[in-house]
Structure formats: structure tokens, C-alpha cells
Design goal:
6 helices; ten-stranded antiparallel beta sheet; mainly beta; six-stranded mixed beta sheet; 27% strand; 23 strands
């Protein structure tokens, strides 16, 4: 019976591929095959669930590695180690994660990325770019030349340095904090904060400018500024250019007898201005009159200006050549003595003057009496004016002058006029401008004339009582003298008037 089952099993193994194409595969449970039956030998590498023959197994075992010391050698595809760390050591491999057993890496064809701790580039320039390194990364450090400077030492800078701001720090009262400017290694100028003690109240820590010799030795401190009050001290003189000096507040103090010099060429004004809210009020200095020799020109003056800054006048002036002082007004106090005065405005009576530029008014201002007036003598000039009906439109003259001499109550006067155009005004001819007023009686004058319209030459002038106007009359006419009008004059008329006033009363 056993032989039958063996034959059936062998047959089944041999015939199974063909039978599988036509019939369902049979299922056997707990089958024991005895004897020396044969079967198909599968190819090496078949790892399916098919039955393996002894030939298949022996063929596979023929190529198995040989254990040496209980491990498979590297030559047979093993690790030559029985542990993971030993295997890595035999194979020269690194462990995963953090490790300290990699001493070098060579043969990489792709640069390790920045995220992996590399540079991401196979070149130095690319590596610097990937790591965000600028040109300073390839510069050496040093104190001069094309090097990166060290800030803990003294550096030498070449070329122009543009710095938006420099803060020089130091503790209070810790000594001067200074910036130097040098040439050839020697100091020329220095400025900064001095070493004065800061004791409160904003004192100390004052600003200064020092100058140095060619050898770098200290010379002087030409400028210093006090921190507490802002006062500027100029120690060695001040030269001012065209822009001038403006002092907005406080005072400009010049110490040690230093002079303020105002330099300029002949004919150039050199002056100081005193202002209120930026508008000039007073001006003093040397005038702009040219120096033509003989010590003339550049006279001293004081000018006054109104609230709008417009020139009013020159109340005080000294002529350089003669030393004469000219005043427009003068008040003498406390018995002061004066030698010579040249005034453009009459000195008032209260200051020892007459208060007037005319003799008559001066006499009245001084309270003169008839007796004093009768004994007085004075002479002067006056300017006569010719009008027709009170007007002189278009009237022009080439000669217009007058003189007078007063002897007591009598005034001897004369006037000369030569016309160049009679004008368009019409009416009675009147000569005015006499600096005296006639007394209560009429005064007559003689007239010498030429180039008047025929038969109308003026022969006399009449001054009414209490008047200073001379009415011009002609002797022609059946009814006596007739007052002349514009119709009697031509564009070339000329005449001379001479007469005497009897003032009779004080004038």
C-alpha cells in the first residue's frame, strides 16, 4: 500500500504542472513521502513555496560563506564582526545621528549644504556669498593701509572718510576729549572738551580749539566756549569778512586789549549797526567819502533811522582832516564848555542859542526891545517869487535872487528876476518872499525893467501895511498907476526892485 501512495505522490509531483492546467490542484494534509522519489529541481534564487529537491538545496549550500571565528569575513560579503559598532569599524562606516568617529570626508561631488553645516558651494567665493560674508572677510586686520582696523588701538586713516556722526564718550571730569588734525604725523589743530571739572550748574566740560606748531607743539587756544552760558572767547584777534558779525543775544567781549579792526578801501562804508527786532536804529563808523589826499574822506559819523529802518539824518559827525564836530542839535549840561559848533538846526534858547535861523525870529525869541533893535545891523539874502493871481504854473526863470540889510527899524532890500517863460497863470503880478513884514504904513520901491509889452513897463512896487508882498504897478494910464498882470509880461521880461521897509514895530 505504501508503494502505491509513493508512486501516486511521485506521479503527482511529475504530472502536477500538466494537471494544473486542466484540473484543480489536490490538497494533502500531513503527507509523508518515503522512498527515493524524484522531482523537478528549481533554479537557484527561486524563493517561492514550491517543494525544494535535494539537488536545489545542495546547489545553494555550495556558495554559502564560510564562517571564520564565528563571523562572516568581509571578503565573503560579511562584516567580520559580531556587533554593529564592530561592523562599522571593520567597514569604515559612521554611525547615524551625532557621532565623533568621522575624522575626514573626501570624494564628495556635491557640496554639503549650509543647512547641513556646509557652505553649499565648491568654491571659496561661492561659499562666502552663501554664508553672507562681505569683502571684509578676505581683508587682513591692521592699523593702516587696506586692512580692517582694530578699535582697541591707534589707527591711521588715508583718504576721505564720510561719517554721519561721531560720539566721543568719557566720564564727567575725566580729562579732555579731543579730536586732532595732523600733517606729517604732527598735530596742527585740535578741538573738543577741555579737562575742566564739572561741579554742577552746567559748569566745566567747555569747548575749545587749540593750534600747534610745525613740530606739533601747543601754540594757543584761539577760541573757547563756556558750556554754562555759551560765551565765546576769542583770544588772538578777529578778522571779519564781507558777511559781518551778528550778535543775537548777550555781548561780544574782546579781552586783553585786542582791537576790532574794520578794514576797507577808500570810499567804502565801514560801520556798526544797532538794531531792534532786526530793524536798524543807529549806525556809526567811517563814512564812504573817498580819501583824495590832505587827510580828507572817511569821516566819523552817527546816523539815526526811523522805526521802519529808513534813514533820518546824521546828528553827529567829525571831519577827519580838521577834527571839526557837526551837530544837528545840542543840549549843554552842567556848564560844559564848547569851542566851535557848526549846527544845521538852530540851537534852542534853553541850550544857549536863539532858537531860530532868521534874525527877526531870533530877535523875538530873545525878547529884544525897540532900543536894542534900533541899534542892530544885519544883512542877508532872500529868494523872491513872482506869481500871477497867486499862481505860477509854467513860470520859469534864469535869475531869481534878493538881498537885504537891516539898520534898526529900516530894511533896505532888492530883488532881481529874469523870466524864461511867463507860464499860464493869470491875474495880478505880485513879488513875495521878503523876510520882513512892513509896518503900519505903505512902503514904495523903484522898479527897473526891460522886455515888457509896450507901454506897460513896471515903474514902482507897493507894499501894503503889515504885509511883505510887493505889488508891481505901471505908471501908464489916465487914472494913475495900474497894477500889472500876466498880460504885461513876456517870456524874456526882466526887472530889478529896490526899496526900503519901515518896520516901525518889532519884527
Amino acid at each position: 500500500m505504501k508503494k502505491i501512495f509513493s508512486a501516486i505522490a511521485a506521479l503527482a509531483i511529475v504530472a502536477m504542472p500538466a494537471l494544473a492546467q486542466q484540473y484543480p490542484s489536490p490538497t494533502f494534509n500531513n503527507v509523508t513521502i518515503q522512498g527515493t522519489g524524484t522531482a523537478v529541481t528549481r533554479s537557484q534564487g527561486d524563493n517561492s513555496t514550491k517543494l525544494a529537491t535535494t539537488s536545489y538545496v545542495d546547489s545553494g549550500l555550495a556558495t554559502k560563506p564560510t564562517l571564520i571565528g564565528g563571523v562572516i569575513p568581509i571578503s565573503q560579503g560579511g562584516t567580520n564582526a559580531g556587533t554593529a559598532s564592530g561592523a562599522r569599524g571593520q567597514l569604515g562606516a559612521a554611525s547615524s545621528g551625532a557621532n565623533g568617529d568621522i575624522t575626514s570626508i573626501s570624494g564628495l561631488t556635491t557640496a554639503l549644504s549650509v543647512g547641513q553645516g556646509g557652505t553649499g558651494s565648491p568654491t571659496a567665493a561661492g561659499a562666502r556669498t552663501n554664508l553672507g560674508l562681505g569683502s571684509a572677510a578676505v581683508q587682513n586686520i591692521g592699523t593702516s593701509g587696506a586692512n580692517v582696523p582694530l578699535l582697541n588701538g591707534t589707527n591711521t586713516w588715508i583718504g576721505v572718510q564720510i561719517v554721519p556722526g561721531i560720539n566721543v564718550y568719557g566720564a564727567a571730569s575725566s580729562g579732555s576729549q579731543t579730536q586732532y588734525f595732523s600733517a606729517g604725523g604732527n598735530s596742527r589743530w585740535a578741538f573738543g572738551i577741555d579737562n575742566s571739572t564739572e561741579s554742577g550748574g552746567n559748569t566745566g566740560g567747555n569747548w575749545f580749539v587749540n593750534s600747534y606748531s610745525d613740530a606739533g607743539s601747543y601754540l594757543t587756544t584761539p577760541i573757547s566756549i563756556q558750556r554754562s552760558n555759551g560765551i565765546v572767547t576769542i583770544n588772538n584777534g578777529l578778522a571779519v569778512g564781507n558777511a559781518g558779525i551778528t550778535v543775537n543775544a548777550g555781548a561780544l567781549t574782546v579781552n586783553n586789549g585786542i582791537n576790532l579792526n574794520y578794514n576797507g578801501v577808500s570810499g567804502q562804508l565801514r560801520a556798526n549797526n544797532i538794531q531792534t527786532a532786526g530793524v536798524i536804529r543807529w549806525q556809526y563808523g567811517g563814512s564812504g567819502t573817498s580819501e583824495t589826499g590832505g587827510n580828507t574822506g572817511t569821516d566819523f559819523f552817527i546816523n539815526s533811522f526811523n522805526d521802519a529802518g529808513t534813514y533820518i539824518g546824521t546828528p553827529f559827525q567829525i571831519t577827519r582832516s580838521s577834527g571839526n564836530t557837526q551837530l544837528t542839535s545840542l543840549s549843554v549840561l552842567n556848564g560844559a564848555n564848547l569851542n566851535t559848533l557848526s549846527l544845521t538846526t538852530a540851537l534852542p534858547v534853553t541850550s544857549g542859542g536863539t532858537g531860530s535861523g532868521t534874525a527877526a525870529t531870533a530877535f523875538a525869541n530873545l525878547g529884544g526891545t525897540a532900543v536894542g533893535k534900533a541899534a542892530s545891523t544885519m544883512s542877508g539874502t532872500w529868494t523872491p517869487s513872482l506869481t500871477f493871481g497867486g499862481g505860477s504854473t509854467g513860470l520859469t526863470t534864469s535869475v531869481r535872487s534878493g538881498t537885504y540889510t537891516r539898520l534898526g527899524n529900516l530894511v533896505f532890500y532888492s530883488a532881481t528876476i529874469t523870466l524864461t517863460a511867463v507860464g499860464s497863470s493869470t491875474g495880478a503880478a505880485v513879488l513875495s518872499g521878503l523876510p520882513f513884514t512892513n509896518g503900519p504904513a505903505y512902503s514904495l520901491s523903484t522898479v527897473y525893467a526891460a522886455n515888457f509889452n509896450g507901454g506897460s513897463t513896471p515903474a514902482q512896487g507897493i507894499i501894503s501895511n503889515a504885509s511883505s508882498a510887493i505889488n508891481l504897478y505901471s505908471a501908464a494910464g489916465t487914472n494913475g498907476s495900474v497894477q500889472l498882470t500876466n498880460a504885461n509880461f513876456t517870456n524874456t521880461s526882466s526887472f530889478v526892485v529896490q526899496g526900503v521897509l519901515d518896520l516901525n514895530t518889532l519884527n
